[in-house]
Amino acid sequence: MSKRSLVIIIVAVLLVVSGVCGYHYIMLSGKQKSTELTTLRIGTTMPIRTDNMFADYYFGIVTSLSHDRLMRLDAKGRVIPELAENWEVKEEGKVWILHLVKNATWHDGKPLTAEDVAFSINYLLEKVPVYKFHLRLVERAEVVDDYTVKISLKEPWARFTVNLLVVRVIPKHVWEKVDEPLKYHGEDANIGSGPYVYKSFDEATGTIVFEANQNYRLGKPKVDKVTFKLYKSTEAMIMALKRGDIDTVYYYARGVEPLYVPVLIEDPNIDFMIKPNLGVDNNLWFNTKLYPYNLTEFRQAVSYALNYRHYVNSIMAGYAEVPNAGFVPKGWSYFKETRKLETNLEKACAMLDAVGLRDLNGDGWRDFSNGTTLTIPILVRTDLPEAGRLAELVKRDLESVGLKVDLIPVDPPTFRQRIDINKDFHAFISRTTMWGMMMWAGYGTGYVDARNIGWSLVDDKEFQTIVDEMLKTTSEEEYRNLAHKLQDLYAEKLYLIPLYWGKIIQPYRSDRISGLHYDPMYGILTKETFYAIEVKSKR
Hints:
Blueprint lengths: L2 H27 L9 E6 L12 H6 L8 E3 L5 E3 L2 E7 L4 E6 L13 H14 L3 H4 L3 E8 L2 E6 L6 H5 L7 H4 L20 E7 L4 E6 L12 E6 L3 H10 L4 E2 L11 H5 L4 E7 L3 E7 L9 H10 L2 H7 L5 E2 L23 H10 L20 E7 L5 H13 L4 E7 L1 H11 L4 E6 L1 H5 L6 H4 L12 H12 L3 H18 L2 E14 L3 E2 L12 H4 L3 E2 L4
Parallel strand pairs: 1-10, 1-11, 15-16, 15-17
Antiparallel strand pairs: 2-3, 4-5, 5-7, 6-7, 8-9, 9-10, 12-18, 13-17, 13-18, 14-18, 19-20
Helix pairs in contact: 9-11, 16-17
């Protein structure tokens, strides 16, 4: 045998041996590349009906996985950069210059540029109704260069960044051909720029699927797939969590109802995150344009008829407290301690008598001066699980002082139509979210001011003067003083009545996942979660 042949044989043997040993080492060390995908399974009772993020409020929430925003909130509620890496404010707050990141791409591979951002702002303002409120003072967005956008405002808006938190940056090359975004269902409708790519919504099984964006500018998130499983009842979802069919639950700006805590807490594999709610779980709202809801004395009388302690115990099982008349919950930087709301039926009756609402025919119900019975129609949201039970308690309390109540259940589309668009309501029960408390001038003003979303339809000059000053000021000391003045006004006028201040209760399977993070806007659907979470078993 020649030397050359011998060398070839020896090399071949060494390669085989090293290959076997290498494979053996990999097998023993567990470092072989796995083809299994990690999946985070989330249960929800949010009533998602379509995958159009503009037409379906709750689907729009879950697209926080697939669509980056210009800015976002961190765990402490501070506005931090996302697609806008920094910004400048000019002309005393009337001009904002956004400088964009230069490495963002759409899921179809096209670059995300200033053309997309300027288009998104102008398009949403023109074609998506809710943005007429969110971007109310925007005059126009313009492209300065590939990665710089100029936004001109009609008036100074010192806290404009808060409203930019909800601007969905959408690809111009998709949406410029769409005239009616609320009706569009093209295959490219959910192309975003975020860490996850929207894959499917199976209405038959109630399953929404997102998959990790392999080319995301910040790197691939730790979990390969996120699925949302839709449940028709909280009971069914809780049982699924206990069985291990899902890893955690989610509902925008809220947790699970406290009444489910006892059945979950007995399971050693279930743990909880309990966070303060910087929104208000439920409020009684009035159309202050209509009589008698336009009377401060009437609203005050109603406030004395309500049994807040009962709501805390019966609805929230003690995971709440009786609210202040100042509406704004504890936890806000410029919270002011106003008087606690209290139950005083004698005072409620005396105040109703004083405004001329008496029982004129002896049937037990209070009447208008012409003898017609005053009936208060209260709209009740069917998408908020505890709202129905709470509404029954509110009805009982108001009827105890002779105010007849008619409860009217409404689903989310009907609620939005009647409250946001038609404004054809007398009263309703609904929450405020943390972001909702921040919008417009902050401290709930966007919900109250008739010039914005304005659920209370308040055009009170004293109120709007405070709001206008809050919108303009860049002095934190002045803003604090105005926030205190506003809370005093809330406590006096009671444009709406908070029913309790609660907590966010977020359960999860600690035997399956760890590393959940929470931000006060989107809860666990935050970037910190998807770059820190550990899924302890493969799916």
